[in-house]
Amino acid sequence: MAAAPAAAGAGVCRGRRSAATVAAWGGWGGRPRPGNILLQLRQGQLTGRGLIRAVQFPEAFLTERDKQSKWSGIPQLLLKLYTTSHLHSDFIECQNILKEISPLLSMEAMAFVTEDRKLTQETTYPNTYIFDLFGGVDLLVEILMRPTISIRGQKLKISDELSKDCLSILYNTCVCTEGVTKRLAEKNDFVIFLFTLMTSKKTFLQTATLIEDILGVKKEMIRLDEVPNLSSLVSNFDQQQLANFCRILAVTISEMDTGNDDKHTLLAKNAQQKKSLSLGPSAAEINQAALLSIPGFVERLCKLATRKVSESAGTASFLQELEEWYTWLDNALVLDALMRVANEESEHNQASTVFPPLGNSEENGLPHTSARTQLPQSMKIMHEIMYKLEVLYVLCVLLMGRQRNQVHRMIAEFKLIPGLNNLFDKLIWRKHSASALVLHGHNQNCDCSPDITLKIQFLRLLQSFSDHHENKYLLLNNQELNELSAISLKANIPEVEAVLNTDRSLVCDGKRGLLTRLLQVMKKEPAESSFRFWQARAVESFLRGTTSYADQMFLLKRGLLEHILYCIVDSECKSRDVLQSYFDLLGELMKFNVDAFKRFNKYINTDAKFQVFLKQINSSLVDSNMLVRCVTLSLDRFENQVDMKVAEVLSECRLLAYISQVPTQMSFLFRLINIIHVQTLTQENVSCLNTSLVILMLARRKERLPLYLRLLQRMEHSKKYPGFLLNNFHNLLRFWQQHYLHKDKDSTCLENSSCISFSYWKETVSILLNPDRQSPSALVSYIEEPYMDIDRDFTEE
Q: Residue 423: which of 386, 384, 377, 481 has the closest Cα?
C-alpha cells in the first residue's frame, strides 16, 4: 500500500493510515463520504477499534467536510490540540486552543440546561457531540493525567489554568452528550486522580462538580481509602470547600441501590445481610470509617451546620460567589438568581449591573458582570441553606452507620444540637419571603425547593439523633430538664438515669429547647403540609425505647395529644404516611399512661368523634397497628393494677372499652395476619406480625391462647377458606424465628417497647409452632389435615 499523503499544514499524520481511515475517506485522493464518517467514529468509540480520533484524518479532509456539516472547526482544533499536547510540550499553545474550544461548548451547555434548545437544533450534530466523537474527551483525560507520568524520575506538571479549562470542557460535554459521564465513570484511575486536583483552590470547584456527576452514574462505589492522602486533602479544605465536598461524600457514604428502605422485603434484606457478612464491610461503610479517621472532620461539619449566615464569607466578591453557586445549582437557577440580583440592585440601590449576551460567557458558562457588588441577603441565606443541606445529610448518614456511638459522642461534644437550636427561627424554620429563591421550574411549596429540603433533612437528623439513644435529652434546655425531674418527683417515681447523666453544658440554651420549638411549629403546620410526617417521626423517636412517664407528660403538658387527635379526627387527614406517623406517635405518647387516656377520653367526648377515630384506625391496619398494640398492652397493665385513678379510666374510656372486647381483638388479629405474607414482609409492615403476637402473648398470660386459636379457626371456616390463615401465620412465625433470633437490635426494641421479656416472645412462638397436633396451643392442632401447608421453603422464593 502506498504511503499516505501528508495532512495539509499539519504534519501530524505521519506513517501509514488504517484501512478504516482509507475507507472513510473514500480511498486516497477520493472525496469524503458524508454519510459514514460519524457512524464509523461512533462504532470505533464503542469497540475501541478503527476510527476513534481526529488525528486519524488529514486536516484538509476535515476542513472540506466541515464546510458541509458545520462542525465549527472542532475536529481541526482537536488535531492541533493533539499536536501541541505531547509529553515534552510546555502546553502554552495547548491552552490557547482550549480557549477557542471552550466557548463553543459552554454556549451549548448553557442552552441545554436552560431548556433553550434552539441553539442545539440549528445544527444536525451539537458541538459537544462532535467534540466527543472526534476523541476530544479521551484527549482531555490524557492531558489532565499527564502529571501521573514520570520522565527520568520527574513528574510532569501542567498549570492550574490548563486543568481548569479541561475540566470545564469535560463538564459541559457531560451535560450535553449522553454516555460521556458513564464512560468517564468506568475509568477508575481517572476518577481517583480527579480527587488530587481538589488540592488547588483554582481547580477545586470544577473538579468537585465533575466528580459529583461521575459518581452519580458510577455502577460501583468508589473507595475513599484509595484516594491518595485523603486525610491531608480534606484537612486542608477551607469551610467552603468542605461544604462543597459534602455533595461528593453524600454519594460515597450511602449504600447504593437500596431504594426506599421500608419497601424492600425482609427476605431480600436478610439475604443481602448474609452475603454482606461473607464479603465484609461494604464500600459505603469503609468510606464512613475513612472519613471518621480524619482528625477534626466531624467537628468541622458541626461548625458548618451551625454557622450563622452573618458568619459566612460576607466580603466575597460577587463573581466569587457566583462561581460557588455554579457548583450547587443548575445554570438556569444561576441565571434566575442573577436577574433577581439585577432587579434588586436597580430597585433598591439604583446600581446598574450589565449582563452581556451568553456568547460572551467565560468558562463554566457564567455571564460577566461589570459591577463587583455584594450579594443580596436572600441569596446569601439560600447559599447557606444549600451548604447546610449537604452537611446535615452527611451527619445523618454517619449517625445511622456502624460507628453510630462514636458519631453521637462527637456530635454532642461539638454542640451540634444547641447550634441548630439557635438557627431554628432565623434559618431552618424561617418564614418564607415573597422573593425567596427556589429551584428553577419549582415553587416555594415544592418538595424540591432548598428551603423545604433543608427542613426535611433537619427533621431526619433529629429522628436519627433521638432514636433509642440517651443523648436525646440534649434536645432540651436546663429548665426543661428540671421540669422532667419535677414530673418524676411529683409522680413518686425514680428519675430517668439518662436525664441524671446528661451533661448540662451540652444542652440547648435560650428560652426553649429544640424539641419544644419543634412542637410549636408542628401545631401550626397546615393540614396539607408535607412536613407533618417528618415532624411526627422526629418527636416519636424521642419517645421510643423504654417507656418514660416523665417524657410523655412533658409532651402531654404541651398539648401534643390534642393536636394529634385534631389532625386524625377533626381534619380527617387523608395522607396514609401522615396518618401512620401520627398513630405511631399517639401510641408511644399514650402507652401505659393513665393521664394520656384521660386526656384522650376528654377530647373524644362523643360517639360521633369516636366513630370517626375508629374509621381512621380500621381504614388501614398497616398504618394504625402500632397504636392498637400500645392500647392493648396498656389495657393489660391497667387491668392488673389496683388504683382508683386507673379504675376510673377503665370504666370511662371508650377506647379501652372497645379494645377489651374479645370480638374486637379477634377482628384485629384476623386482619393483621391476613394482610401480610412472608414474601411481602417489609420493615414497614412487619409490625403487623408483632402486634398479632402481642395479642396472643397476652391471651397466653390469661391462659386463653387455645380459645383465640379456636376462634381464628372458626373465622377461617366462616370465610370458606379453611387453613388459609393459620398456614400463613405458621409460615410467618417460622420466618420470625429466622429474622429475630439473629438480630440483637430488633429483639431489644421488641422487649423495650412492649415491656415483655424477649424470652417470653420466643417461648410463645415456639409453643405456637409446636408440631404436636395434640397440643391445645399449637397452630397445627387447628389446621385440618387436607388443608395443611406448613413446610413451604419460603427462603427460596
A: 384
Query: Per-residue pLDDT for 433 more than 60?
Result: no
pTM over 0.85: no
Each residue's pLDDT tens digit, 606-643? 999 999 999 999 998 999 999 999 999 999 999 999 89
Task: Kindly list the distances between the CA atom of residue 678 and the CA atoms of 727, 732, 738, 768, in Å, as whole numbers in the listed order.
Answer: 11, 6, 12, 17
* Amino acid (1-letter code) at residue 335: L
Q: Say how far apart CA 233 and CA 203 lie, in whole Å.
A: 14
Q: Are 18 and 50 in contact (CB under 8 A)?
A: yes
SS (H, E, C) 44-111: HHHHCCCCCCHHHCCHHHHHHHHHHHCCCCHHHHHHHHHHHCCCCCCCHHHHHHHHHHHHHHHHHHHH
For residues 775-796, b (16+ Cβ closer than 10 Å) or e, as one string? eebbbbbbbeeeeeebeeeeee
**Could you say which of 1.10.60, 1.10.357, 1.25.10, 3.90.1570 is the CATH number of the domain covering 36-219?**
1.25.10
Instruction: Identify the three-state secondary structure at position 265.
Output: strand
Strand partners, 265: 682
Q: Where are the alpha helices (DSSP H) in 544-620?
A: 549-556, 560-565, 576-590, 594-603, 607-619
CA 90 to chain CA centroid, nearest Å: 45
* Interval 110-136: pLDDT, tens: 777 665 444 444 444 588 888 888 888
CA-wise closest residue to 677 among 758, 764, 789, 763: 789
